Amino acid sequence: MPETPEVGPPVVTPLRVVIGICLVAPFVAMLWVGSYAKTDPTFIGIPFFYWYQMLWVLISTALTMIAYKLWQHDQRSRRDAQGGAAK
């Protein structure tokens, strides 16, 4: 019978909190419509309402990439810690 690794309860670490913040921030920014439902200031003739949302597309991409890289780092650290404890 093959051995299955023990799966413990989820662990909340500061790194995972940062990952969560990176993933939640765009939702909060976009759901809080009152903060950007205006026309001024304009940027190259584009009302604030539109360029703010387009800016968040870029910010969301960057935050998702950061969260992914941090998740990879977290998983690598956990795997190394489990491998080191088993030896």
From TrEMBL:
Classification via Pfam families: DUF3311 (PF11755)
Transmembrane segments: 17-37, 49-71
Keywords attached to this entry: Membrane, Transmembrane, Transmembrane helix
Xref: InterPro entries: DUF3311 (IPR021741)
Protein name: DUF3311 domain-containing protein
